[in-house]
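User: Hey, quick favor. My workstation is busy. Could you predict this chain's structure for me?
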Amino acid sequence: GIQGSIGMLGRRVADDQKMDKLVNLATSGCSDIVSLSSNLLDIARMDDGKLVLKRSVLEMGRILQLMDKFMQNALFEEKNISVAVTPPDGDFDVYADAYLLERIFQNLFSNAAKYVPNGGNVEITFANADNERIICFYSSGPPIGEGQRKTMFEKFSRLDEKGSQYSKGLGLFFCKMVMNEHRGNIWVDADESGNHFKLSFPDRAVVQARPARVARAADAV
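Assistant: No problem, here it is.
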């Protein structure tokens, strides 16, 4: 209801750049609240083994559709952060639950908006590897230390930075649990230019050849 009302207000003040910016920031805040609530509920469902994946083959067009709306985060404009997608060489698809993949994208884009410094950049790339498909979210900025990279996917873990005061430490934990459910993985590589968050999805044939497994919260740490 709040988000819908703000959207109506936004259409009335679209010609006022200052007001339009404030409306966009408020809309992003509502999205973060919805995301946090959804994370809490879905983490509980996964912990109890009650979340059933609805996998399908998601081709490149569908993947871009799932992430498109999160590229418009108001903080990207506010902080002059550029967002780019580099298409893969050749065909690319993942065997995944579209709703949960969209939620991962929401969390990763939200983190990028919060932690990438002013004037920075975000780039999404795709790679085909042996029996897996990898989606990489690169974000410029200070590299995350090795110690933090080992613990940042744990429940309630937060980056030791001023910007983390608004984080509840559930977004990356949620992403880890979802990737465990998909029999995949999420991790971070870092270099001098920034951080590379990587999602690895096994091929459909690999998934179907393995027995079903119920992921628990303990798997994510």
